[in-house]
Every structure is written in structure tokens, then in C-alpha cells.
């Protein structure tokens, strides 16, 4: 046995003793309350499992990250229309079915409060406390006329599909919700 | 007597696991956390989490519709 073999064996043993944290990636592509909820539940639970969790928010998923006071965003009239119809922030999300002009989410959130289920907003804060990386997608931000100022603080740098794929290549759990 | 107690009564999934993970983080190996939960889901979630994380479930019992778990940090 050469010294080099011993070195590589020692390195391998060290690797087994302190394994790198598993990675979990979630692509949050929906602004529906019933999708945002599982996104944030799984992200925080992944962090509780000691995983390095990154949530990549794209398309309507960006609504979850919008500040409540973001108002009408963008320069183009079509972007402004989006701001009129999609208010953003976890409190304003609608349900994918049974929305009934906001009646559905109102009932759902009431039930959640009565049952002590953490809200999407609370889970979002908790995720940030637990070190979950929240990445907004640059392309959809541009498309929808959103700037960094329209989004909550403490987010990762806006990234693209390449960064998402690069993360998912090494992740043991990748979800598209 | 556990080193730390987590009162997760009234909290729903996934909060019992999350609160426990936060409480166990600063402890050293061999120290224990007692979790008290009322969420029935914790019955499967806490043991599964503890096992996956390399911790040991030392004790588990039910008392007055509340679930107690003692987890030793691995």
C-alpha cells in the first residue's frame, strides 16, 4: 500500500463521516394558494431534515414573493394589467379550484387558522429563518415587469433555468409544483 | 428528564418536526429533546424524521390524547 492509497482512504473515510447535506430543489411555478402551501410546507420540512433547500420561483410562483404593497408593476400596459389582476403576497393568493372570487381562500384560511396550520406567509418567514434559499426567476421577473423592489427582502440573486438545472443535477429531491 | 422540551401541542404538520429540528440543532450528541404533540401525524413523522437524521427515539408514549417522544441527538 502506498502513501497515496492511505491518503485517499483517509479522505474517503472523512467523506463518510461528514457527508455534504442533501440538496432539495422546488420549482414553484404557481400562484395558487393550494400549490404555494405545499411548496412552503415541503421546503421548511426539507430544512428540518438538514437539507440544503432552494426554492426557485417562476411565472405565477413569483406572486408568493411579491410585497403586499407592490401595486401595479412594470412599464408596458400588459405588465400593468397583470399587476391589476394579480395583487401578489401570500395573503392574496387564490385557489386553483373553488376560488369563488376569493370566498374559497377566505374559508380555507379560516379553517387553517382554526386548525393551527401555519399560513403561507408564516412558512415563508420560517423558511428564511431556517436558511432556505428563495430564488426569483429573472426571466419571468422581466416578462411580468417585476423589479427586486417589488419582491420581499432576503431573497437570493435572481437566477435562470441554467442555475435551476445545475442545482437539480445534484439534488436528491427535485419537485415542480 | 430531557435536556430540552418542545411543546408542539395544537400545532399541525409539519410544525412538530420543524420545532423539534430547531430545538435539537444546538444540542450535542447524546443530549435529548422531549416533544409533546397533539397532531396525530407526528406519530409517524417524528420517528421517521429521527431515524433519517441519525437520532434515536428513546421513548414514545401517549397520555391524555397527547403524544410524547424522547429523541436523543445522534
Q: Could you please describe the fold and organization of this structure?
A:
Chain A has 177 residues and is of the alpha/beta class. Chain A has a single domain, classed as 3-Layer(aba) Sandwich (Hypothetical Protein Ychn, Chain: A). Chain A is 44% helix and 11% strand. Chain A has seven helices and four strands; from the N terminus they run H-E-H-E-H-H-H-E-H-H-E. Chain A has helices at 3-17, 33-48, 77-85, 103-114, 120-129, 138-144, 161-169, and strands spanning 23-28, 52-57, 133-136, 173-176. Chain A has a four-stranded parallel beta sheet with strand order 3-2-1-4, with helices on both faces. In chain A, strand 1 (23-28), helix 2 and strand 2 form a beta-alpha-beta unit. Chain A is globular and about 50 Å long. Chain A starts with a helix and ends with a strand. With 74 residues, chain B is of the alpha+beta class. Chain B has helices at residues 15-24, 42-53, and strands at residues 4-8, 32-37, 56-63, 66-72. Chain B has a four-stranded mixed beta sheet with strand order 1-2-4-3, covered by helices on one side. In chain B, strand 3 (56-63) and strand 4 form a beta hairpin. The longest helix of chain B has 12 residues, at 42-53. Chain B is globular. The chains are: A alpha/beta (177), B alpha+beta (74). Chain A binds chain B through residues 41, 44-45, 47-50, 115-118, 126, 130, and chain B through 10-15, 17-18, 20-22, 49, 52-53.
Describe the protein's topology.
The complex is a heterodimer of chains A (177) and B (74).
Chain A: H1 3-17, E1 23-28, H2 33-48, E2 52-57, H3 77-85, H4 103-114, H5 120-129, E3 133-136, H6 138-144, H7 161-169, E4 173-176
Parallel strand pairs in A: 1-2, 1-4, 2-3
Chain B: E1 4-8, H1 15-24, E2 32-37, H2 42-53, E3 56-63, E4 66-72
Parallel strand pairs in B: 1-2
Antiparallel strand pairs in B: 2-4, 3-4
